[in-house]
Structures are given as C-alpha cells and as structure tokens.
Amino acid sequence: xxxxxxxxxxxxxxxxxxxxxxxxxxxxxxxxxxxxxxxxxxxxxxxxxxxxxxxxxxxxxxxxxxxxxxxxxxxxxxxxxxxxxxxxxxxxxxxxxxxxxxxxxxxxxxxxxxxxxxxxxxxxxxxxxxxxxxxxxxxxxxxxxxxxxxxxxxxxxxxxxxxxxxxxxxxxxxxxxxxxxxxxxxxxxxxxxxxxxxxxxxxxxxxxxxxxxxxxxxxxxxxxxxxxxxxxxxxxxxxxxxxxxxxxxxxxxxxxxxxxxxxxxxxxxxxxxxxxxxxxxxxxxxxxxxxxxxxxxxxxxxxxxxxxxxxxxxxxxxxxxxxxxxxxxxxxxxxxxxxxxxxxxxxxxxxxxxxxxxxxxxxxxxxxxxxxxxxxxxxxxxxxxxxxxxxxxxxx
Length: 396
Fold this sequence. Notes:
Layout: E1 3-8, E2 17-22, E3 47-53, E4 56-61, E5 75-83, E6 88-95, E7 106-110, H1 119-124, E8 129-131, E9 143-145, E10 155-160, H2 180-197, E11 207-212, H3 215-231, E12 240-246, H4 252-265, H5 271-281, H6 291-304, H7 328-332, H8 355-367, H9 370-376, E13 380-381, E14 384-385
Parallel strand pairs: 7-10, 7-11, 11-12
Antiparallel strand pairs: 1-2, 1-12, 3-4, 4-5, 5-6, 6-10, 8-9, 13-14
GO molecular function: serine-type carboxypeptidase activity
C-alpha cells in the first residue's frame, strides 16, 4: 500500500490545511526530489573541492565513475558538522534543479529506516541517476541518466540522517544514540549551517521537506521546529512552504491494520474473510482476543505471504540467507520492518529476474568502490573507511 500526504504552510508558518492523496505507487514525475549517485568511467573523475567553513566541506562532482561523460546536472556532495563535542557530521548530496534553479523550489529529502541511506532515494526512486540492471561481471556497475527525476522541477538536498545513516558519521559513538526528536533537531542545525554556506539557495526560494516510510515520523517534526523558528523570527528564517510524505510510518495500529483493508481491496483476501475479520477482530489485526479472530488472522497472514509486500505485482524473490541479517526483498519494500539490512560482506547474488532486488546488489559494489568514494568526497574515519549500508550502521 502506498499513499502520499502533503501539508502546506502559510507565510507565518502555521499549518492551515492537510491534503491526503492515495496512490497505488509513487511515480517520479510527482513534482519534487531526486535521488542521485553514480558509477565508473574513464578517464578518472574530475572534481573540485571547496571547504566552505570550519564545520563543513563540499565537493562539486562533474564526473562519476560508471557514468559515460560529464554529468548533465549540477551535483554537490559534502559534510556538515552538527555536533562539535562528538564530531557528528551529516553527509548530503545536492542536485540543482535542471529547469530553473534560480526560481524552482528547494526540497530536503530524507529516507526511511531509521538509519537507511538516502542513497536509495538518489538512485532508485526520484533522483537523476539510475543503475543499468545487467548481470554483475566483476566490473563497476554502470549508471545512466534518469529523465523522470524530480530534479526536473526542483533542487533537491538528499540527507543521510540520523548520524550513522549512509556516509554520515561521528568520532564519538555516543552520537549514534539519537531518537526521532533529537535527530530532527540535528537536521535543523544542518539546514541552518548549509544555508549559511549556500546563501543563493535561500533567497526567496520556496522550501519543502519530504521523505518516505520511517521518515514520515520525522518530517512533520522537522517542519514543526522550522515553523517555531519562523514564529520566533529565528535567523535565518527558512521559507517553509510545506512537506510531503510517501508511505509514511505512523504506528503499528494504523499501519498493520490497514494491510487487511488493502489486501481485501486488491482481492488478496475474499469478502467472507474480510467480513469475518471485521466481525471477530473488531478491526484489530495485531491483538486477536478470541479463537475465531485468531483463525481468520492466521488465514489472512498466509494469503498475504503469497504476494510481495512491497509491490503485489512483483515476484517474491527467495534469496538464500548468508552474509546478511535480512533479505533484499525487505529492502525493496517501502513497508519497512523493525530490523535493518546490514551486510558483513558482499551480498549474495539474487536471481536476475528479481529486477528490483538486483539493483541493490549492484549498488553495494558501486558505492563501496574506492574510485567512487574519492569522486564523492567520502571521508576516512581514522584508519577505517565508512562502508555504505542501505540501512543501519557499519564501519569496516
């Protein structure tokens, strides 16, 4: 099940209107955002580096390994320190609007998890790059331009948040102990510093916040804190216009129970089974209180397990477990579990017919290639390198 909810702010930062819109699937031409990254190309990548302040650094990327030729859009990556005591730094990818960057809105985009990398949004969902899905032969996977990127109409700031997501890191492990509230406030710190370093994107430019899945919890929080800053005339005043969440996690009671209604509406369970669920379970899928309810919930779970939870039209890909704590099928779904996709080594190769899962397999080899890391300006932490995990934190 997928849906999008948008909220819009007036000039004073109040929240006068809430507009939910249901959709079966998020489509890239929706209007905002971009998920971007890349692959191996010769000659070696050319880039320019610029330290913008003592607490931030950035890299303008003109070529990416795996992408043929110069990038047809402006890409900047970088770090912004959000906590001096622990040395916590958030990593970002910034893609400028390909239409009218001087007037188009700016969108901050977060991804789910928590602690899933925004890299997935960059190359799998709304960004200007995508992987060429072809059998892995040991060479660096290839990237191509995505003409349906949200950067066709907006500049997008993809952020690895909270600390420990993607390439964001801290020198002190205590910095990884953050919750939704503290990480939301850290995003606000990030924004104020980033705007200080990028003043031209701050002038009379409408600003939006977006995210999917678990980010549905923190996006409204960030919007609330920004709105408070607007009311308090806190400088710099961020010109917040609204937020958008796709497939947002709201809580088990709503999210889990809604799966039954969704399954019924798409014919996965019958009218009789749905009516028995309503009658005996009173709409509570999580806590059966009697035998008829337990029986119908068991039947519904069995039927739902026969389709892919992330997309009922896709085949279920049974991938042998081995070097990971979860399967790629879990990662491809916007319906995220309460566990993380963490790799201790290269993942097992999925069947090639598992098109969506195969992209994640290719992304591991691309994002953790040394040439790619140099091109993106990824930092070394002491004597170790940060290893990109789609979800969760791992230091190699």
